[in-house]
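hey team, just a heads up i'm posting the complex here instead of the shared drive bc the drive is being weird again. everything in one block, sequence lines first with there labels, then the predicted structure for the whole assembly after. its four chains so it's a bit long, scroll down
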Amino acid sequence: MTKPRLPKKFPNKETAGALLLANMRRNIKISTKDEKLILAASILLSVPKKEFFHHEGQVNEYSAFVLSGCMRSYFTDTNGFEHTVQFAVEDWWITDMMSYIKQEPGKLNIDALEPTTLLLISRRDQLQLYDQCPTVEKYFRILLEKSLASQQLRIIENLSLPATERYLNFIQRYPQLTNRISQIQIASYLGITPEFLSKIRRQLAGK
Amino acid sequence: MTKPRLPKKFPNKETAGALLLANMRRNIKISTKDEKLILAASILLSVPKKEFFHHEGQVNEYSAFVLSGCMRSYFTDTNGFEHTVQFAVEDWWITDMMSYIKQEPGKLNIDALEPTTLLLISRRDQLQLYDQCPTVEKYFRILLEKSLASQQLRIIENLSLPATERYLNFIQRYPQLTNRISQIQIASYLGITPEFLSKIRRQLAGK
DNA sequence: CGTCTATTTGAATGTACTCAAAAGCGGTGG
DNA sequence: CCACCGCTTTTGAGTACATTCAAATAGACG
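-- predicted structure starts here --
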């Protein structure tokens, strides 16, 4: 994890916190008491492009809410190839879930594809918040349900669709990501090589 | 959904409910007041082998906790091939998450691989329980976190490992399932054809 | 037993990968 | 402002992993 640096876009934590609270309010109702507790537990962090937020083999102590920029979590296999688990742009959470919930060394890396600002919450503070504010627990319960449903969809598509259709679904589902992320990254999310993605695109263009 | 039939093993709801409460107690502490509310919301259901609990295109109103037997959820692609999302034996929950949380028609089928007894909770009752008993919300939040983490692992392995290693991981991780489920089912979970799984097994046996 | 389904086997095929190299593109420094 | 460097994307030829199709064998169940 890099040294926190205050980015220009978010000169103070209040401005940053407002983004998180707005996201939470879209799912639940928060009392002013809860707001204060949430903000008190939040940590502002800036991650320069290509730098890491979490390294494999280490404990992912924090869950990260993206304020601006773009992060990705990925797994490096025994041959050195990277496989993307998740991208996260503004308004998304990202973490190495396995490491975060168990607070044990994880298998994933999380780095910044763009200069990124994050709002962090430690697992410790999160568990405390859950007990203090059932509403916060409700918020994450809702987020987890949605994540699980969309991951089920990803698994289904990985099992049942050829690469071309997985790519078409991706650009349709995440149009904002398509123009922001390199093809290498998209290929590693889809489970194909960059070379093959290039061939798929040529095929699709010729129609 | 089939007509409820009381199985021999669970002559009454109390016996069945005790199994669910035991599972919950392994994750949280429940008050006697909460216990009553949980049991009041639970519905006992028996599903004969090969019969369906949920059909694609319909709303998955209930989430199911397996008391005995084995269920699977799967997706049928445009060529008629089935792709298993999840198996659930004793002490596991199963549902078409996308349909269940939105209460909209789903894409999955859920059927019984063995004669199975379930304890159901409707989405409506579950949401009510969440508001009445924060502890119940905590229980499902914990379950969702674990599910998400293990699904992340499955995605990683599907992306990074060849079929032989995915199979070896499967039989190591779910030894109880391996002897209980046909190879057709295992193949459809791993994302390969039954024929190819048979060839993998021959390869592995010849060592 | 006989029937139905699951599993195995083999040959031909296809989808996606590997390796190698060229072309494009963006940033940086002289 | 141009030239160079590094990284991304494209392209092609050869290869490998997994599928398809067809058929034989083995198991399970009434």
